[in-house]
Amino acid sequence: MKRIIAALIICLLLTGCWDQLQLKKLLFVDVVGIDYEGDSNQLDVHYVVSSLRNAHQGGGDPSNLYLHSTGSNLYDSVAKINKKMPGVLSVLETRLYLISAKFAKDQPLNHLNVTSQFLSNPLYAYLAVYDGDLSELLARKKIREQTISNYLVSLIDDEKKRGNIPSQKMLHYLLGGTEFINDFALNRFEPHENSVRLAGAALFRDGKYTGVNLNDDETLLANLMDGAPGKMQLFIGKAAANNYSILVQKARRDYDIIHDANGLREIDITLKLEVKFVEEGLEIHNRASQLAKLEAEIGADITAKASGVIATLQKVNCDYLQLGHEVAAFHPKLYQRISWREQYPKLKIKPVVKIKILNSGILE
Which of 73, 167, 264, 317 has its CA at a distance of 20 to 30 angstroms from the CA of residue 90? Predict the structure, then answer.
């Protein structure tokens, strides 16, 4: 029995050595940037390969290698890189696909669909828009002492954990499989000073970038109306004559589809937020009535902002909240009778934000 166990251990060790030799040949692409080359239909593709310098047991110094190629599609671009660079590009560990604003306006998902055909496809990579020069950004080695790939991905990771932005993975767009997925919003990067920052979300209609964006606050609010949970999201505003700062503890969103024999009349979106105040020492003499008044005033302020978000979405005919999907799912006969794309921009969509203050003790 001992001999059998020893033989199995030796086999496992031998297999590990063979795999290690193969891994040394792979170039693990961390970030892929995609644009058009000039005015042509050729893709201008940028690859950021992550590696360790001075590697040793337990770590090393993270480093990025920047590669660039053109091609009629991603497969063609990768093939050209493999011919002029020792090693083999692998997208097994790719964490971010970054597309230019120009590329985003021309059905980008049609080009990205090819990634699902790679043997080890990056379906869990983020997808985002960069409104700047991709080659200049991705060729940089570091930003604020971080590699460019770690910096970009960390920005998305951190804001996603806070619940401020939507989480867009390649898996969602490549395997969605329905007509409704063609309207969406992608997180947007932009140049800032000598760095780069997240700047709201880019709105897409029928798979094409509309050129219209939501700012940071609008993206946060749209994300909550889309069903995101409360994760200490910060709202700052003015209720009546008082400034307020609140942190969301819990969020619940409900849709009410109102229709009659004549068709779809209205969609109400109710967003209930349980919040805590950031400020302390507010002077309120009649606590019960004053608290209710303050909740109503804050709710009215955020409702007005939510109405602005809805107005922007309807103006560019982008059904980011997938309201059409809600109508089709719960009222299929009603949905079949209407032309959603034509009705959506003119439809009455009424958001209402209701606030419940949890730490009312600070009002005493």
Answer: 167
